[in-house]
Write a structure and sequence with these properties.
Layout: E1 3-9, E2 13-14, H1 27-39, E3 45-49, E4 57-61, H2 63-72, E5 76-82, H3 86-97, H4 105-122
Parallel strand pairs: 2-4, 3-5
Antiparallel strand pairs: 1-5, 3-4
Helix pairs in contact: 1-2, 3-4
Length: 126
């Protein structure tokens, strides 16, 4: 698996299809946008090339940072580009978000279901 780090225009970034977590525009988002405005995006987002495109990407981890960057007027974000198929990306997406404090039980349940389906597609045994 080849990984590269680039700055990517936020216009070329797409939310992960059926992303299980809601990105809320609230006080925490405002605080993140202010931090990004002052210091930039400190931790790169993780993306994968979007199928059937030449230079667009699907966000695996970093949906909140991208939204906050938009609010802050930032046009590019640092990104780690990873070569993962959809199932592997779904597993990484779920695992990279489960540590968050404010996850609704319904979001967590949907995330675990998404991970289980991806693992089944990859041939994992229970």
């Amino acid at each position: 698996m080849k990984n590269t780090k680039n700055n990517i225009s936020i216009e070329k970034l797409h939310a992960f299809e059926n992303h299980p977590y809601k990105v809320q525009d609230n006080e925490e988002m405002d605080a993140l946008a202010e931090s990004i405005k002052a210091h930039g995006v400190v931790s790169p987002i993780i993306v994968r090339p979007l199928e059937n495109t030449t230079d667009e990407y699907e966000i695996i981890s970093g949906h909140r940072r991208v939204m906050a960057s938009r609010k802050a007027g930032i046009t590019e974000v640092p990104a780690l580009i990873v070569s993962l198929d959809r199932d592997a990306a779904a597993i990484v997406l779920v695992d990279s978000n489960l540590h968050r404090e404010h996850i609704l039980p319904s979001e967590k349940a949907f995330a675990y279901k998404m991970k289980l389906e991806a693992m089944k597609h990859q041939g994992y045994k229970r």
